[in-house]
Amino acid sequence: MPTGKELVRAALQFQKVERIPWVPFTGVHVAKLLGMDAESYLKDPDAIVKGVVAAAERYKADGVCSVFDLQAEAEALGCELKWSKNNPPAVVGHALEGGKSVAGLPEFTKDKGRIPQCLEATKKIVDAIGDKTAVFALVCGPFTLALHLAGQTFITDLITAPDKAKEVLDYAAQIVVKMSEWYIDDCAVDAIAVVDPMTSQISPRHFRRFVSPAVEPVIKAVRAKNTLITLFCCGNATKNIEPMMECRPDGIAFDEQVSLPFAKELSEKYKVAVEGNLALTTTLLFGSPLECVNEAKERMAAGGKEGYILSPGCDLPFDTPFYNLEAIGDYVRDGKEPDKNAGYTSLEDALQQCAESGQDLEDVEIVPGRVFIEIVTLDSEGCAPCQYMVEAVKNVQDKYGDKLIWRESLIKSVAGIRRTQKLGVSTLPTMLINNEVVFDNIIPSAEELCKEIDKRL
Predict the structure, then answer these.
(1) How far is the CA of 246 from the CAs of 15, 239, 262, 270, in angstroms?
(2) pLDDT single digits (tens) 363-373
(3) Among residues 108, 125, 119, 235, which one has the least CA distance to residue 177?
(4) Using alpha carbons only, how large is the chain's radius of gyration in Å?
(5) Whole-angstrom Cα distance, residue 172 to residue 365?
(6) DSSP-derived secondary structure for 184-251
(7) What is the pTM of this model?
(8) Residue 266 backbone zone (phi > 0: left; psi -120 to 50: alpha; other: beta)
(9) Is the peptide bond before 429 cis (omega within 30 degrees of 0)?
(10) What is the distance between the alpha carbons of residues 326 and 269, in angstroms, rounded to a whole number?
């Protein structure tokens, strides 16, 4: 039987494999394996190595991601981060705010911020398990990095000042090329994963106009070094799956909001592999081992043994039970079926317990002269599209004072899942105004949001 590394490389090269490879996007979840919080973990290269290697062995992974933190590049360029105990950090201060230009940003070198730790940890991971396990180096995609740098105004600039937006994107693409080349030259990784979650928030027309030209030099640079490359998008990226494949990476990854059979059809057309897309919360976080393996079976049947890698829809929630990931690894590697649900809580059980305990999120009364905004997210602390949808509301909050109240409803809780079911929300992030879906998987500009608020006032 080929090694896990050989299976992953074959799948990304659209070759038929003996067994579908399994790549759990463990992210900061591995900090829990070590009894650490996310912040301490991401600041300690030795802990990153220990955690990723331990996860690879415990979950019988065929491939691993070295450092799952899409804010490291932005931090090195002067962005301010807010750290969390169970999520990667979030960008809360944007380096280009206040009319600053890309020319004024600091030089992007290997010694800036946490870049040295990322490279050090990745090199040690490759040395430790790279002979049998594929190692992916994650880099922040150009569109998301541009938004980190410029903040919410970047969304408006796409429409009102496209040349300005393109300048930031072109600069971000240069940063992504540098990071990719460092990971290849210094660490000898098997693949570069360009993680650009914010691209789910734009139309195919804007993707082709802005994102494709920014991704092209990255793919060209990685290919020049004989290394594989994948594109990774979160949210309901259905509309942009084909534009992603048109960029001709070796593979694309997406979350549970995208239909795997739909993506697989395009995969066959473009000969671009697909990775995904086990449900993060409803299955992996709150399901039982049996539910996790059953969903893995469904995904594997849809993906097939050519051009497919089984993985979660995105990086795992911090508290994902170890036993669920172990069960998937045992099934994929050895065909071992889990025991029945005895001793484990299923999602159905968890939802029932939530209802019986009265922990549901309460409705907010809609009264004249006041607007209630509810943002349904995975978690704005760890999901970039969710973060920027929340930021869109925060940016206009002062204008309305007590006329505007809002809350974030996270599906990382059982109460949050029940709330989304009650609201009929199926994509994340979604913004409701007075309990009506207004912005579904798209970040509004300040002008667009104010227009919708004013309409209801």
Answers:
(1) 19, 13, 15, 8
(2) 888 899 999 99
(3) 108
(4) 21
(5) 44
(6) HHHH--SEEEEE-GGGGGS-HHHIIIIIHHHHHHHHHHHHHTT-EEEEE--S--GGGHHHHHHT--SE
(7) 0.93
(8) alpha
(9) yes
(10) 34
